[in-house]
């Protein structure tokens, strides 16, 4: 089942959670999808649009070494983005994405997206989950699919973090 922005906001409100995003390829579309829903301000703290390498490093504290070792399109970078957004906000949960929407000469196919979800936990290190997915379509379709997927997986990973089942 795909969650809508309304579903995710209802989930966040029900759990008393505040969300921040760290977006590369989606360029703020995750936050924008939520902001389109009345009452989003109760659950949406901020969105970091970090399209460039320098923005990821400067705004979110992504390590240049991680980018060089793992590639910009990697779960390692997405995880550091999610943790950086968590550290730089009042959010309880963050979602981050980085990926490729255009065909390039690289070994990473267009449509590849790396996502991460980080959850603040009392007295503990944040819980973090990540995955790599591949979508098909043009730039717009790829970005929209990534937004829907990021929102759909947020409650799934919350339940996993809380010890429940999917």
From TrEMBL:
Residues 3-154 form the CinA C-terminal domain. Its EC number is 3.5.1.42. Coiled coil: none annotated. Keywords: Hydrolase. SUPFAM superfamilies: CinA-like. InterPro entries: CinA-like_C, CinA_C. It is an enzyme of class 3 (hydrolase). GO terms for molecular function: nicotinamide-nucleotide amidase activity. It comes from the Bacteria. The keyword Hydrolase applies. This is Nicotinamide-nucleotide amidohydrolase PncC.
